[in-house]
Amino acid sequence: MSSAYAESLYPAESNHLLDLNSLEKPEVTFWVARLDGDIVGCCSLVEASDGTAEIKRMFVDPIARGQKVARKLMDVLEAKAAERKLTAVRLETGIYQPEAIALYRKSGYVEIEPFGEYKPDPLSLFMEKTLSP
Fold first, then answer.
1. How many angstroms separate the CA atoms of 42 and 69, rounded?
2. Is the pLDDT of residue 106 over 60?
3. 43: helix, strand or coil
4. Phi/psi at 97 (nearest 5 deg)?
5. CA-CA distance, 53 to 29, in Å (whole number)?
6. C-alpha 86 chain-centroid distance
7. Predicted confidence (pLDDT) per residue in 55-75, tens digit
8. pLDDT digits (tens, 9 = 90+) for 35-59
9. From the CB of residue 18, how many other CB atoms can be counted at a distance below 10 Å?
């Protein structure tokens, strides 16, 4: 569902989705959120070799939006990043997702230049939150 949503908003060259097979690696931690037993959200933390990590596949089903599912996923993700003593968490999101951008800003993420293998893209916003040691 998260792939279909992203594909409905952005052209292929601006979609930076991590394929599902890539989620089955040791450096990836993946969470799901459930509501009455049904999966209504997900996110993953992909650790890099430089002491940082990237948020990938952050998605909340429209039926569960407004119920703080994304906030709870972020709390769990950031707690795991702190536990692993990571220095920063980064992300790439699309400019047509104002609710996601607002969540990230409210959570302390600030805009940065493209990182890793990302190239500048007018449809992308790159953000980072520095974690306390």
1. 9
2. yes
3. strand
4. -125, 70
5. 10
6. 16
7. 998 999 999 988 999 999 999
8. 999 999 999 999 999 999 999 989 9
9. 15
Distant-in-sequence contacts of 69-76, Cβ < 8 A, 24+ apart = 69/33, 69/35, 69/40, 69/41, 70/41, 70/100, 70/103, 71/103, 71/107, 72/33, 73/31, 73/33, 73/41, 73/42, 73/43, 74/43, 74/103, 74/107, 76/31
Q: Strand 52-60 relative to strand 88-94: parallel, antiparallel, unpaired?
A: parallel
Can you tell me whether residue 70 is helix, strand or coil?
Answer: helix
At position 14, the amino acid (one-letter code) is S
Query: What is the number of other CB atoms lying within 10 angstroms of the CB of residue 71?
Result: 13
Amino acid at 104: Y
Q: Using alpha carbons only, how large is the chain's radius of gyration in Å?
A: 14
